Amino acid sequence: MSKVLMVIALTPLAVIGSIVAILAYNTAEFSSKVDLIQMLSCSQWLPEEGVFGFLPFIAGTAWVTVTAMVIALPLGLLTAIFIAEYLPRRAYGFVKGLVELLAAIPSVVYGLWGITTIVPIVKEHVAPLLSKVLGWIPIFQVNVNLGYSVLAAGFVLAIMVLPILISISEDAISSVPRELKEASFSLGATKLQTIRKVVLRVSMPGIIVAVILSFCRAFGETMAVLMVAGNVAKVPSTLFDPAYPLTALIANSLGEMFSDPLYVSALATAGFILFTITFTFNVVARLLVRRIVRRRGLT
Amino acid sequence: MKAKILLDKLFKIVCLIAAGVVLAFLAWIVVDITCKSLPSLSLEVLAELPKSGGKAGGILNAIVGSIFISGLAILIVAPISLLTSIFIVEYGKPKLIAKAVSFSSEVLAGIPSIIFGFYGFVVFVLVMRFGLSVLSGALAIAALELPIAIKASEEALRMVPQSVREASLSLGATRWQTAIKVVTRQALPSLVTANLLAFARGMGEAAPLLFTSGYSNFIPSSLWSPSATLPLAVYYLISTPFPEAHARAYVAAFILIVIVLAINWSTRLLSRRVAKFSVTR
């Protein structure tokens, strides 16, 4: 029986193995036909002519993900601190449950909200206002004002990752032993000092995991960015330029690619880039946490 | 000293504002979708097939398609995830393989969903020749749900106290009998929860289905026919220029939210019940 069980248990290994094999094989195939390094830094995307420059898509992914994290991190961490440290116990269960429930809302719903609400707001209010006030900073200038932009996609992604970010980092913060906080208070530290010097330090491994997981979620998200990023294959230079992230590229091109093997392998290469980066971040997160835990003698 | 206390108060207010902003935005999404879908929500929209390209009729095709694809996916995932978690938790030998399986399902859980779409398209649609169909879609969704269900089932099995296993083994039960008749039965409510959560997750995914399930305005008649799902309906209907179709996209999104939140809510109630009655040491 245990043999049969073992064979069945190999399913996830087989799935991940075949995914990596397909992506890696196609990437190898792709780099044997074109110069991969050159393609990674080329900004022309002309599949019919065999030119597959990934730069606009890599840049699109980077712009959108960084924007999302810049918006989500302060909001999410402050909210987690509020829920864990300041919220009255009576409201705690309700608010925490609500946040976890909201994490289950499908990404296509966020995309729909983004198209019909955020994109028009960015176009009509945010872009004119920010460019007027902060226009002297290059990233706030407006070249084309469509609404479908780095900012809109980053914002929708930020709202989308907030529930996960808050939920995991709140778990970490509220698992800090009460005695540590009381020791800090008894030495005359204020609540803010205790949070900064005790609570956040002790819960840092959990917070790092929360940040990395939400980063990976934002980075690999497809539907929401596909719907609001604008999908123009050009390296964005400001927050109001449209972007075309890697995930959206795969989603938009899958239908037209299968007549051309080179196109298939180009998209697999895009997939391989996505996979490698999320994989690296996941592994780094885990090693980092293990190291911090060991160094501090925390369990 | 005064400055310190002032700073302390200020920080509390900043945190309060942040939490308020976050909850306001999340509430905005739910309220926005609800308000924009309610005017066009009717029995006709829920119970009829689309007419003239989504401009009239309903979204029954997407509702039924979602149930078919997610249902088939969880039927594939449930036994595999149970047996895999039994292997990891109850057997755990050979250690290297158990670790590799555990690690691989964690890696799988971190993969962007569009990669499952690419994988499903290449493997199920092109290589296995299942075509753009319910089957291809369900398999792609199953690949995505698998690590989620395994992780949660693993946790469910680990919650069962060791003494229960020891009691069973000491009565002469084999490891397999103990795993199936004692541990699985004891963990059953949490295992159901695990699969329900995976089901809800699969229900909301569109990216793996973009090029595996196809899209159809009819109810799929077999495993081999293409099918719409609710998330796909939201995406395609909002991409059309017609306001009537947009209204139906909202209804599809609303139904999707209701189903997904209802499943998540009921699993909370379920697990609270279990916590109340289960054996503790």
Molecular structure report:
- The complex is a heterodimer of chains A (299) and B (281).
- Chain A has 13 helices and 2 strands; from the N terminus they run αααββαααααααααα.
- With 299 residues, chain A is an all-alpha fold.
- Chain A has one domain (2-296): MetI-like fold, CATH 1.10.3720.
- In chain A, strand 1 (45-46) and strand 2 form a beta hairpin.
- In chain A, helix 4 (55-86) packs antiparallel against helix 10 (204-220).
- Chain B has a two-stranded antiparallel sheet.
- Chain B is built from 10 helices and 2 strands, in the order H-H-E-E-H-H-H-H-H-H-H-H.
- Chain B starts with a helix and ends with a helix.
- The chains are: A mainly alpha (299), B mainly alpha (281).
Give the structure's gist in a few sentences:
The complex is a heterodimer of chains A (299) and B (281). Chain A has 299 residues and is mainly alpha-helical. Chain A is 76% helix and 1% strand.
Structural class of chain A: mainly alpha
Helix segment tally of chain A: 13
CATH class of chain B: Mainly Alpha
CATH superfamily of chain A: MetI-like
Tell me the major beta sheet of chain A: 2 strands, antiparallel
Question: Which radius of gyration of chain A do the C-alpha atoms yield?
Answer: 22 Å
End-to-end Cα distance of chain B: 49 Å
CATH architecture of chain A: Orthogonal Bundle
Distance between the termini of chain A: 36 Å
Q: What is the CATH T-level topology of chain A? A: MetI-like fold
Reading off the top of the CATH hierarchy, the class of chain A is best stated as Mainly Alpha
Uncertain spans of chain A: none
Query: Biggest interface, which chains?
Result: A-B, 80 and 83 residues
Helix content of chain B: over 70%
- Number of discrete domains of chain B: 1
Please, how many helices of chain B?
10
> Structural class, judged by helices and strands of chain B?
mainly alpha
CATH superfamily caption of chain B: MetI-like
Strand order, sheet with most strands of chain A: 1-2
